[in-house]
Backbone:
């Protein structure tokens, strides 16, 4: 039996700093849980541009297609703002998502008990929150044709096209139903079927997939604007939400803020199953390269660590080990170990990035 393979693309800014902590955790699972990975590392974003003049080389792209999962840190930084659009760091990430065809973007909004005070909502509304937003990532209005700014008579007109095929809707719906089955068996699909034809098709196809393949999952439909209201009014009513690219972009960011800090938010982007039945997969924190704190040991590594927990759960079917890692993070927070982004008292001393990683390791040790 060969070990499952991981490609680490740490990227720019705080990417390498938070990924260094994930490396320690990966090693811990190898040493203590008999869960070893073949880990390779490569460059993406500005770091790849500096070395090769491109934010993602063909060789790295090929590796990403071959491994069981990709772990990405973050890309970008002010140094690269002047670059041509085609070689900007973000293009490396977009190429990965596009060529791996990662159509299902999973964004959990989970409120760790110790951080309930960080939410902009009342504590009792968010305490214990654990929902998952599934956003369609490779189609919809960000990709539909025609698009552009055109001349029409005496003025310009900006055009984007919301376009979804049945198969694009069905595959992301399946991904969401599968997730719901692993969780509390509830899925809410959001669109604007009241005013958009693509929304009518979305609703029809999600219902058809449900009736034919997942009749036991409790399915509801909601208009996305009403869904946005419900998310901030009573978010705990949801389990899994599935929605299109545009609404998912907005709703997942809103839901993320229910839980407090950007430094705590993981994500997964999944594609079609590979020959070994594992989905194509890329795991990354939601945050960017945070140039304002890069190189200072201030970055919170939890978002990246929790992204690895998602990899354990969704790529390697190790839900129990993912639970262990999430519980370790929860314990560290409850014990009061915090990086600066999670501090409230002004005179408290924040933990550094590596102290936070070490505290998670200690909590993992204690879990044995
Ligand atoms: P950002 O997420 O990098 O930072 C926003 C704010 O949150 C900053 O104040 C930062 O210090 C803080 N922050 C972010 N992550 C943190 C962490 N782990 N711990 C503690 N504090 C944290 O967003 P930005 O400032 O808008 O963008 C910076 C760069 O990152 C830009 O070049 C942008 O294009 C890029 N970016 C990349 C990604 C990605 O790689 N997926 C996502 C967003 C932004």
Residues:
């Amino acid at each position: 039996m060969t070990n499952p393979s991981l490609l680490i693309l740490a990227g720019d800014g705080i990417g390498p700093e938070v990924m260094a902590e994930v490396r320690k955790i990966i090693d811990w699972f190898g040493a203590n849980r008999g869960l070893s990975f073949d880990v390779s590392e490569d460059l993406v974003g500005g770091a790849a541009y500096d070395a090769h003049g491109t934010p993602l080389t063909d060789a790295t792209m090929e590796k990403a297609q071959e491994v069981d999962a990709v772990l990405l840190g973050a890309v970008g930084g002010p140094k690269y703002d002047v670059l041509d659009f085609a070689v900007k760091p973000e293009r490396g990430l977009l190429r990965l998502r596009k060529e791996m065809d990662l159509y299902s973007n999973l964004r959990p909004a989970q409120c760790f008990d110790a951080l309930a005070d960080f939410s902009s909502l009342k504590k009792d509304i968010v305490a214990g929150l654990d929902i998952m937003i599934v956003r369609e990532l490779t189609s919809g209005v960000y990709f539909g044709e025609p698009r552009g700014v055109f001349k029409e008579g005496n003025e310009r007109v900006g055009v984007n096209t919301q376009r979804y095929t049945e198969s694009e809707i069905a595959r992301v719906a399946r991904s969401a139903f599968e997730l719901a089955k692993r969780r509390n068996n509830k899925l809410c699909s959001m669109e604007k079927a009241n005013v958009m034809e693509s929304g009518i098709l979305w609703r029809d196809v999600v219902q058809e997939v449900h009736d034919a393949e997942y009749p036991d999952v409790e399915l509801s439909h909601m208009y996305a604007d009403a869904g946005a209201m419900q998310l901030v009014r009573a978010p705990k009513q949801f389990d899994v939400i599935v929605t299109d690219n545009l609404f998912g972009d907005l709703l997942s960011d809103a839901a993320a803020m229910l839980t407090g800090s950007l430094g705590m938010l993981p994500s997964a982007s999944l594609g079609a199953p590979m020959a070994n039945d594992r989905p194509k997969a890329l795991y990354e924190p939601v945050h960017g390269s945070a140039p304002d704190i890069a190189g200072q040991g201030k970055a919170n590594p939890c978002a990246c660590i929790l992204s690895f927990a998602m990899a354990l759960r969704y790529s390697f079917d190790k839900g129990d080990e993912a639970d262990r890692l999430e519980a370790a993070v929860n314990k560290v927070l409850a014990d009061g170990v915090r990086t600066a982004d999670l501090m409230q008292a002004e005179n408290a001393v924040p933990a550094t990035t590596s102290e936070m990683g070490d505290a998670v390791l200690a909590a993992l040790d204690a879990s044995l």
Remarks:
- Residues 15-33 form the longest helix (19 residues).
- The radius of gyration is 21 Å.
- Residues 14, 18, 74-77, 90, 93, 262-263, 284, 287-293, 299-300, 303, 341 surround nicotinamide-adenine-dinucleotide (CB under 6 Å).
- The first strand starts at residue 5 and ends at 11.
